Amino acid sequence: MFQSIHSYIARSVQLSPAEIAIVNENLEYRLVPKKTILLAANNVCNFEAYVVKGCIREYFIDPDGVELTLEFAVEDWWVSDITSFEHQTNSKMYIETLEDCELLMLSRESKERLLQEVPKLERMFRLMIQRHLSVVQNRLFKSVSYSAMDKYLEFVKRYPSIPQRVPQHYIASYLGITPEFLSKLRTRQFKKVL
């Protein structure tokens, strides 16, 4: 259960066996069924979760009641509302499991304890935030400068497993297009491949 997060950590820092034991002690393993709301808007996010297995969606609901997908998280990714978690403010988003999930959870208290006991992990979390910011900036750039087809092709290239795992209307929501238009794009792309 901890092997994948140990590998994740090892890509940033090397920990001693004693430090790895501290990591394990501070993580809470949770099995979460499909369609569970981990965080609802107007609540404070009290976790950062590492995805051992499963798929999760982050989304918000616009003033017209339309769900807009912000991000997907699959194996070896982290999920949270960073702003709400760090500042203890109400979230504007929802975090929902799309598959049965195995998660390793950190509360604010366990994360603080972990960083005090294993200061090396500050580097891992810093690198993780930097990568996340880079992804968000890239997504913002592409959302204003790419065509719908280019956004779809980039999505499939970057996240090849997700189209087989999540309903197409969530992908359309992520891309900022209607499900019908996504279907047309996929048909057009399929015909090109043939």
Number of strands: 8
Strand order of the largest sheet: 1-8-3-6
Question: What's the overall average pLDDT, rounded?
Answer: 94
Gross geometry: globular
**Tell me about the biggest sheet?**
4 strands, antiparallel
CATH T-level fold name of the largest domain: Jelly Rolls
Low-confidence stretches: none
Radius of gyration: 18 Å
Secondary-structure element order, N to C: HHEEEEEEHEEHHHHH
Q: Which secondary-structure class do the elements indicate?
A: alpha+beta
Beta-strand level of the residues, as a percent range?
15-25%
Task: Count up the helices.
Answer: 8
> Based on the structure given, which CATH architecture of the largest domain is correct?
Sandwich
How far apart, in Å, are the first and last alpha carbons?
42 Å
How helical, in percent, are the residues? 40-55%
Could you name the CATH homologous superfamily of the largest domain? Jelly Rolls
What does it look like?
The protein contains eight helices and eight strands. It is an alpha+beta fold and 194 residues long. The chain folds into two domains: 143 residues, Sandwich (Jelly Rolls), CATH 2.60.120; 49 residues. It has a four-stranded antiparallel sheet. A hairpin with a 5-residue loop joins strand 4 and strand 5. The longest helix has 25 residues. The N and C termini lie far apart (42 Å). InterPro entries: cNMP-bd_dom, cNMP-bd_dom_sf, RmlC-like_jellyroll.
